[in-house]
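Why do we care about 3D structure at all? Because function follows from shape, and shape follows, mostly, from sequence. That is the central idea of this module. The next example makes it concrete: a single protein chain, its amino acid sequence, and then its structure expressed as tokens.
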Amino acid sequence: MITSLLYSAIIGIVAGWLAGKISRNHGFGVWGDLVVGIIGSFIGSFVLNLVGMHTYGLIGSIIASTLGAVILLWLIRLFTGEKTAHE
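And the structure:
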């Protein structure tokens, strides 16, 4: 049980950090990366299941979580009206 939580936390931190790098060119700090990554893992798994794809293993979990975290950040910016660096 503890190992599973630690595994999920590490994946969440990595996925949140990657999503921050992809969308903002920097991370959100350890706690912000963790929250974005964990919520992103649910979103990523849901989206991939909708299109009939499944991920396996560590790399698959990181990819799905990162995809979900990027979607989460995009939705947040969509509803808050935050400008990107390109605008």
